[in-house]
């Protein structure tokens, strides 16, 4: 059985501090996406302040820099395991055609839709199904580390079916502690 850990690094004295142990993928997803501050959804600026700038030590800003250099605004982009959709919302603000998905609709969906009326979201379990439509690009940020080898095989098969013939996949290798061995 795989365990999912969350870490927060705040200073050199607290390196590797474990927040909690999650016993399932859905529990891990919920823990990573809880709302820590209700003011975060009062405006786009507050949202980005709480969930984008310097979030996870600036990792989302690094993703954004890379993604923007490799996507075209006219591309049809599917984001899987979008969670809070911080990177995707930034792209939407700049005119990119991004469709977000995750295992279920999070409780802040209506708050997100209010701030970003063009926010497109649907539930998708990429391990069980491919997307109904095909896309030019599929984004999978901070997701593949939760899959075992059998799930990864299904993931790549369903991603392949979700992409146009000339489409491509952008993933990162961020991972949990049990992947460091």
Describe this structure in words.
The protein has 181 residues and is an alpha/beta fold. The chain has six helices and seven strands, in the order ββαααβαβαββαβ. The protein has a five-stranded parallel β-sheet with strand order 5-4-3-6-7. Strands 1-2 form a two-stranded antiparallel ribbon. α3 crosses α4 (86-93). The chain starts with a strand and ends in a 10-residue tail after the last strand.
Major sheet summary line: 5 strands, parallel
Uncertain runs are 6-11, 13-18, 177-181
Structural class by SSE content = alpha/beta
Give the oligomeric state.
single chain
Q: What gross morphology would you assign?
A: globular
Strand content: 15-25%
Count of runs of 4 or more consecutive helical residues: 6
Write the SSE topology.
Blueprint: E1 4-8, E2 17-22, H1 25-32, H2 44-51, H3 59-70, E3 76-79, H4 86-93, E4 97-102, H5 109-115, E5 121-123, E6 135-140, H6 149-162, E7 163-171
Parallel strand pairs: 3-4, 3-6, 4-5, 6-7
Antiparallel strand pairs: 1-2
List its salient traits.
globular, disordered C terminus, two-stranded antiparallel ribbon, about 180 residues, five-stranded parallel beta sheet, alpha/beta
Summarize this structure briefly:
This protein is α/β, with parallel strands linked by helices and 181 residues long. It is built from six helices and seven strands.
